Amino acid sequence: MHLRRWLSGHPPMYVVIAGAGVLGHAVAASLVEHGHDVVVVDRDQAVCDQIYAELGATVLCGDATDLHVLEEAGARRADVALTLMHRDPDNIACALLARTLGVGRVISRMRDVGYEASYQAAGVTHVVRATAVLRNQILAHLEHPKVSDLLSLRGDRVHIFSVVVPADALVVSARVREIAGMSGFPRKCLLLGLLRAAGQGIEILRGDDSIGAGDTVLAIADAADIDALTDVLTRSA
Fold it and tell me: Which fold has domain 144-234?
């Protein structure tokens, strides 16, 4: 058994990836590294050769919107199909065929939101809205410069984000319950976890836990409260 797979405890998955562009290549590399069985399908022979040479993954040069190509890729026994091609109609066609072949989970990248209903009709189990993800990251860095990472939920109304605590911040050495009682701390937010500057894994924060200089705090808050919370976490003593 693959060492990383054994350490993580996750069973191996058989994954068919349709489209080996920048995203498809990166996803394939991560899946191979995690010990999963990956088959990459792409129309470009040179791209397929590169994937095989760099990753050692199984590759199939062909059209992922062709039923017979998907069958040759082993879609009938796949746990997951990823449709990551450049055109939404191609991704939708591939997703529909994959579901027809019995693939239980299909994850698709959507470029144009006008196709969202079509993805749903094709039986896609999860749609990745590429434009929305990039938009949210850009807006996060633009409007909330103290925020390191941001994940939007509930139509951008709620956000999970991280903030690095400066060395001179008022919250350094303070307990979570004390921070929650500080002036300006929003009611509709919660400090979820902590990545210590020393590099240990994530800690789930409790009321008596304290925060150190350089620690990264993971929080959840309403969109309107992000700046207020980051101000509390980064305010100078």
Answer: Alpha-Beta Plaits (3.30.70)
